[in-house]
Amino acid sequence: MAALLIQTGAFAQQAGDGGISAGMLEEISRGYEGTAADKAIRNALNSASINVLAANAENIAMIDTHFSDEVKTKGRTDQASSGRCWLFTGLNVLRARMIARHDLGEFTFSQNYLFFYDQLEKANLFLQGIIDTKDLPFDDRKVDWLFKNPIADGGQFTGVSNLIMKYGVVPSSVMPETLCANNTSQMTGQIATKLREDGLRLRAASAGQERKMKTDMLKEIYRMLVICLGVPPTEFTWTRYDSKGGFVSTKTYTPKSFYEEFVGEDLENNYIMVMNDPSREYGKTYEIEYDRHVYDGQNWLYLNLPVEKIKEMAIASIKDGTALYFSCDVGKFLNRKTGVLDLNNYDYESLMGVKFGMDKKERILTHASGSSHAMTLIAVDIKDGKPVKWMVENSWGAAAGYKGNMIMTDEWFDEYMFRLVVEKKYVPEDVRALLDQKPVLLPAWDPMFSPED
């Protein structure tokens, strides 16, 4: 009892300094009135989720699925239980172009092949980062960030561009998916543990020993990756068929020669990433330190623009038959059954009896929203000169959403679209000129730049 009294006294003292006092609690408790409607909602929430009860009955009809302009694609991919949306999206953009240019039937690149090198390169990025920061104290923010994030399966477009230009691509039949590729958490967890251990050893190593030690460490990581993902091919034979199933040719390729013959673009210099982030100044370029997949590759660099400018470039690309890498906050107002992203899908205010009033800038600043998923932008519906809805090819399988796609209203696009990768020929000259400025360097731990899963 004495202990209870002491604790109660301490609580009372804290309450006077900003805690919830008894009088304040009494006033706060009046926020719930216990009306019949309140009780009905409480009862319903015992057996149904918030999203089920907040589903807007006035918006249950399926959205119109006609689009005025659409990039035709074949087949849908499935990233399964992995965070590789960035990789699937990048390869799906290239796949659509390859199918159209070479009159192919359904075709997919091997995501597993590039994922193997993604994980190897990220391991090297971490280990070299530890070497580069050896002279900093262990509690330095950068060192702490490195040990907190030694490796992950998420990423963004510079990973796609750097990995492909360095390692090429192969068809999925040459290096198919494995169980570990489809379920990455355990593999990545084991590699992360090993890398943290190796990082400690590197920090304790004598000068001059680090390079040899790092190479030996990467040999172990390579072995782990082979066990989980398979051996990446250096040469392979592939038979090409046309869209009607007719034989075209059988040839032997390397991953790089295959890329050169069927895609052949300079991904590192032909594209720019644009972003709509109203919490930062428009017209400026931003670079995120350590946000890359390859140590000798490029940091994530983007140009921040108003959403209307981004839409103009997206429309120009789609009208010309070119799909785009697109990322957004996919979980907001998503009807998973229909695959529709619409601000009117759910009426949380009526259910909860409160107002949600933040705009996009305020949601970003308070961590309420940020880019979480990458998909392939393939269609826009334009009426009276303005876009009314958009469609993306997703990587959650053909049965997810609308035939493996998601459809978003233009209003949703405004609020929850964040990034778009655009081929330079669709970028106006005045926008291109902004890329000549020196980028503003942002730290790796900036919360807006988490990898896309």
Report on this model:
The structure is a single chain. The protein is an alpha+beta fold and 453 residues long. It has a single domain, classed as Alpha-Beta Complex (Cathepsin B, Chain A). Helices cover 40% and strands 16% of the residues. The chain has helices at residues 2-16, 22-28, 36-44, 50-54, 85-102, 111-132, 141-148, 157-167, 179-182, 185-204, 210-229, 255-262, 307-319, 348-352, 360-365, 410-416, 429-433, and strands at 69-70, 236-241, 247-253, 271-275, 285-288, 300-304, 324-328, 334-335, 340-341, 373-383, 386-393, 405-409, 417-423, 440-442. Strands 1, 4, 5, 6, 7, 8, 9, 10, 11, 12, 13 and 14 form a 12-stranded mixed sheet that branches. Strand 2 and strand 3 (247-253) form a beta hairpin. Helix 6 (111-132) runs antiparallel to helix 11 (210-229). The protein is globular and about 70 Å long. It starts with a helix and ends in an 11-residue tail after the last strand. Mean pLDDT is 94; it is low at 1-8.
Helical content class: 40-55%
H/I helix tally = 17
* Low-pLDDT segments, ≥5 res: 1-8
The number of distinct β-strands equals 14
What can be said about this structure in brief?
The chain has 17 helices and 14 strands. It has 453 residues and is of the alpha+beta class. The strands form two sheets. Strands 1, 4, 5, 6, 7, 8, 9, 10, 11, 12, 13 and 14 form a twelve-stranded mixed beta sheet that branches. A two-stranded antiparallel sheet has the order 2-3.
